[in-house]
Amino acid sequence: MDYVLGIDFGTTSVKIVVLDHITSQQLYSSNVKTDADVESVIGEAGYEQNVGKIYEALEKLVLQIPDELKNNIKTIGVTGQMHGLVLWKTPQASDLGLMKCESSNLYTWQDQRAIPEFLSLLPVPDSHIPLATGFGCVTYFWLLQHQPHMIKHFDWLGTIMDHFVFSLCRLEHPATTSQLAASLGFFNTQTNTWNIEILKTRGFPVDRLPRIVKAGTIVGQLVDDWHCIKKGVSVLAGLGDVQCSFLSSLLCQNTAVLNMGTSLQLGCIVKQDNFKQPDSTYIQHFPYFNEDYLALAASLNGGNVINQFVQMLVKWMKQFSVDISENDVWEKLLKESENVTLDEHLEVKPTLFGERHAPSEFGSILGLTPKNLNLPQLFNSICFGLIKNAQAMMPVEFLKSHNIERIMGSGSVLSRNPLIRNHLKEVFKDFTFVDGLDCDSATGAALCVIKYCQN
To answer: Most buried in the list 118, 195, 414, 445, measured by CB within 10 Å?
Structure first.
């Protein structure tokens, strides 16, 4: 028996799956919320997470895998939230182990500390992917300027997946894939190299960057048993969560995927031979597998917007001395909105978190009337607005120009919110809708092992 473990470090939760290497059948799946958010010393602009809490959540999941499965895991694939940054030290011999490697917080992709004025002062990267706040190298430049005393004693930098693989396998030097390197910034996807000389001109410690390997490359092995997963099990370099989500979804050609979890992504595969420098500020081309590209409209606004709305309602009720849980609010919203039709006057632009191409443009509500000033109508319009925002970023014309015939809907929000699924079908009515609710990044990480694994 030959099993594969897939791990996904999401923004709010960690998920694992176990697949049969021969049949690709899912044998086990579990997830848990991390509750890892911490208050940043810079206030609301900083989005940080406690790395230790994330790993604690993962270890709880691994402990729960049945022993008969763990004993036959031969390979581990790792994916997770892109763009974010972790700094860490090489552990001493007395500090070996996943939980003992000294690190900074995880500065997530949601981080807003690099305001447009700061971005304008950074060197122009040799890359078709423009810089944005939340990109790991951008965050590091900010730390270099504002908190140099904090970062100087760390040896390495990378995504949380890079840190995890480094710690789990006790590597001498961290390794990453072009999928994650491109998300950090200052990376040329065509030469597959960091912008070393450009970074050096501004004092960036380029020797701390991970080395680049091909997606699917084994970079290490477990040096000890890990909760009954045996010593010697191979571990792949970290992968992008969006790429892995698409890998688990795209079972046929001419299909685009709209994935909505904490954020939202709409994209399709572009073959290497058809790649050209993009002329859209909304659509970026990230490395995929087999040297192909993923044309991606990546919105910062997805399930996080709906969660903000739910949390707002809970807070409002508490101000009236009424205690109600978020789960109860969710249940009520979905039930009351089942048969509600969109109001033609009400227009919600639900970009609470701005967008990378327009970081200062936030949400708005237009067309409020006595008739539509009610909870079901407002919730319905928020859900509709999220899908319309995705369509605005990747128009129907773009999809048709890439011969897209089907759109697959995937992600945690689509799985629990039928209203969103109905709006997706309506807004993209020119395409056949395909249900991809069983697709996720952890599965994609495991599938990468099966399809692309190499030494």
So the answer is: 445
Residue range 39-77, pLDDT digits in tens: 999 999 999 999 999 999 999 999 999 999 999 999 999
Q: Are the C-beta atoms of residues 174 and 91 closer than 8 Å to each other?
A: no
Pick the closest to residue 104 from 180, 45, 38 (CA basis): 38
Cα 205 to Cα 40, 141, 198: the distances in Å are 24, 10, 11
Task: Supply the pTM of this predicted model.
Answer: 0.90
Type of residue at 441? S
CA angle 417, 14, 245 (to 5 degrees): 60
3-class secondary structure per residue, 220-286: EECCCCECCECCCCEEECCEEHHHHHHHHHCCCCCEEEEEECCCEEEEEEECHHHCCCCCCCCEEEE
Rounded CA-CA distance 15/7 in Å is 6
SS3 304: helix
Pick the closest to residue 177 from 159, 195, 164 (CA basis).
Answer: 159
Least confident of 66-70, 222-226, 320-324, 355-359: 355-359
What is the pLDDT confidence band of residue 278, given thresholds at 50, 70 and 90?
A: low
User: Quick check: 105 and 41 in contact, CB under 8 A?
Assistant: no
